[in-house]
Design brief:
Chain lengths: 473, 196
């Protein structure tokens, strides 16, 4: 018994032999036991279990190579093994067992459906995020005219994921020859033109702010000022290894009020980070620096640390957590007491009930440790957002955030300890005018209520703009 | 764990080497080959092999055949080997025989190791949730129909399992739907009449 246990342990990692490969003769041939194996093989074959039948016939032949019935049985089973493995792979793939399907397609690749098996195995590997193993299989499938477009489509997705935008564009454009793939391939090809290892984007917007100086809703000495504004934003995103890996980002923003020059703003920021994983399953850590000027004078600078992680909970659902810490310094003496450290944490669940539709719900909490305790606060509240494609090339989104904010101490200047509720809602419509040009329209609403009436205000900011994004390399 | 169970349960018959070979292959995850060895051992007269074949059929995704192996003639009596009872329960669960699975898992409890006991407890909780509401009439009818189909196909053991499930589920309904019918079918099955 001990020998058997040791043997079992030693062979624990042994690989199963090819069920249709050459049969090794048994050390002690026994035609009697061969007949029993053959009967078991016949029984398993009748039950539709070709793998077990093959194993039984092989054992029979190892004990009696002259058993013609066992040989015929093995040949009959092996003639169908690739076909059965392919059917098993399809079944497992439909059941969502990608790893099981990969093993089955691997076995099916020696048969007449080799390129179909390679295609489906490549797709399963792509879905598991194993692009390195998926790519050669998809290239093998691409050589078969029957699978050229399908394989090209997934090779395009892999190229897109790796940040190889030029390759992705070519592959996706080629796969659009298949009418069934065309709508997806064209959309993705458009995305490819806007992604890559170096992405430049620029947005110019114009709009109106109903309450530039955040004047309270109640009538009082402060009159509400509305104003037109124009803004431009430029972003440079560098990802030398594609979506997963290190990245650098720079952002510049310019905003000009038509009459209220005190809020004319220039800001620049830069960030460097590293992302591990992709799409719905990743982590990311980032350091960033921001600087903002108001009315052409230094206003605020901040170092920030940001981290986030997301895990896929199912085919359409993921959950994420994120943390941001900003070390803020306000330059003007009058604002110096706002300087301090701000922490924001959030957890959310993202659900994509159908293609190109995303619903996200989360809860956030924040702590602002300002230099003055009267300006320090805790806040928390829900966040809800919704995105969907309303028409081809037209995306609609709504984001809403509610924050209940409680300040640490009574503010002597207003004679009360503030407790605010801040509600932000923003609606956005984007229409792709061309591959790299997008028309944008947005409407932002902020409603803030406070225990102190002078901090209760409403503002509405409608904007229209145009954006250009280009992916390079 | 199966190999230890096998080694401890072996009688010294000529089939032993095939049972041990099957256990080794089972441990290596080579289910099809393991099944062949257990089937050969059965044909050579092993009394233990049938239960191990049942466990292997569970691994091969053939739960109905596994139920037949466990509950058919020569199958291991419930309560003797906690690990086999656990595999038997898995077969029942995969064949949608939930009350069968629950009954077996209730007996697994402390007799098995902590891992199996934990999994058994989780499975029982899932079954309790499944059975927490009154079974739908369609469910009871489905089991009765499956009992009928399997009996017609000559699979008496399986037919008995489905009829027992129909009876158990019907008994959880206020109107006891299908209970009398299931009992009648079970009586006919016990009398050895193939068609129902």
């Amino acid at each position: 018994m001990m020998v058997s246990l040791s043997l079992a342990a030693a062979l624990a990692l042994a690989a199963a032999p090819d069920p249709c490969g050459p049969v090794e003769p048994a050390a002690r041939p026994d035609p009697g036991i061969a007949a029993v194996y053959r009967v078991v093989g016949d029984s398993e074959r009748a039950a539709g279990s070709m793998e077990a039948a093959a194993a039984a016939y092989r054992a029979a032949l190892s004990h009696d190579p002259r058993d013609a019935d066992a040989r015929a049985g093995l040949e009959a089973v092996c003639a169908r093994r690739h076909e059965l493995a392919f059917a098993e792979g399809l079944r497992l793939m439909h059941e969502g067992d990608r790893r099981g399907a990969i093993a089955a397609f691997e076995r099916a690749r020696g048969g007449p459906d080799a390129t179909s098996a390679a295609l489906l195995e490549g797709i399963c590997l792509y879905e598991l995020g194993d692009d390195a193993r998926a790519a050669p299989l998809l290239r093998a499938a691409e050589a078969d005219a029957a699978h050229r477009e399908n394989a090209g489509f997934f090779l395009g997705l892999i190229a897109l994921r790796a940040g190889r935008s030029a390759d992705a564009q070519d592959l996706l454009a080629m796969s659009a020859a298949d009418p069934a793939l065309a709508p997806f391939a064209r959309d993705l090809a458009r995305s490819a033109r806007r992604s890559g290892r170096l992405v430049l984007s620029f947005v110019a917007e114009s709009g109106w702010d109903s309450n530039v100086d955040l004047a309270p809703d109640i009538p009082g000495p402060t009159s509400r000022i509305s104003d037109m504004l124009g803004a431009m934003t430029g972003v440079v995103d560098v990802r030398p290894l594609g979506e997963s890996g290190p990245y650098l980002r720079g952002i510049g923003n310019w905003r000009e009020q038509r009459t209220y020059d005190a809020l004319d703003m220039r800001s620049v920021g830069a960030a460097a980070g590293w992302q591990g994983g992709r799409s719905g399953h990743f982590w990311l850590a980032e350091y960033g620096y921001d600087r903002r000027d108001l009315a052409r004078a230094p206003y605020m600078s901040a170092h920030r640390l940001f981290g986030t992680a997301r895990v896929q909970l199912g085919p359409t659902t993921s959950a994420g957590v994120s943390w941001l810490t900003r070390f803020e310094t306000f330059e003007p003496d009058v604002d110096a007491d706002y300087s301090g450290t701000r922490h924001v944490a959030e957890a959310d669940v993202v659900w994509s009930p159908w293609l190109r539709t995303v619903v996200a719900a989360g809860w956030h909490g924040g702590r602002d440790l300002a230099r003055a305790a009267t300006l320090s606060w805790w806040e928390q509240g829900p966040r809800l957002s919704f995105r969907f494609e309303a028409a081809p090339r037209t995306r609609v989104g709504v984001d809403s955030v509610l924050a209940w904010r409680r300040y640490d101490e009574v503010d002597p200047s207003i004679g009360t300890r503030r407790s605010d509720a801040v509600f932000d809602v923003a609606a956005l419509v984007e229409v792709d005018l061309a591959d790299r040009w997008t028309l944008r329209g947005s409407l932002a609403l902020r409603r803030e209520t406070s225990t102190s009436p002078e901090f209760t205000f409403t503002k509405v900011v409608p904007m229209v703009g145009i954006g250009y994004t280009v992916g390079l390399f | 764990m199966l190999i230890i169970s096998v080694a401890l349960g072996l009688a010294s018959t000529g089939a032993d080497e095939h049972v041990l070979a099957g256990a080794r292959l089972f441990r290596e995850g080579r289910w099809a080959e393991a099944l062949v060895e257990f089937r050969v051992a059965e044909r050579l007269g092993s009394t233990a092999a049938r239960g191990y074949a049942g466990a292997t059929l569970v691994k091969l995704g053939r739960p109905e055949e596994a139920v037949e192996a466990f509950e058919g003639p020569g199958g291991p009596p419930a309560g003797r080997d906690a690990l086999l009872d656990y595999h038997h329960a898995q077969a029942c669960w995969n064949a949608r025989l939930y009350t069968c699975a629950d009954r077996l898992l209730a007996g697994v409890g402390e007799r098995s190791g902590p891992r199996v006991a934990g999994e058994a407890a989780r499975a029982r909780a899932a079954i309790a949730k499944l059975l927490s509401t009154e079974p739908k009439p369609d469910s009871v009818d489905w089991y009765l129909a499956r009992c009928e189909e399997t009996a017609r196909a000559g699979r008496q053991v399986l037919a008995r399992a489905y009829c027992s499930e129909a009876k158990a589920l019907g008994g959880r309904r206020q109107d006891r739907r299908g209970v009398a019918e299931a009992e009648a079918k079970l009586s006919r099955l016990a009398a050895g009449r193939e068609g129902l």
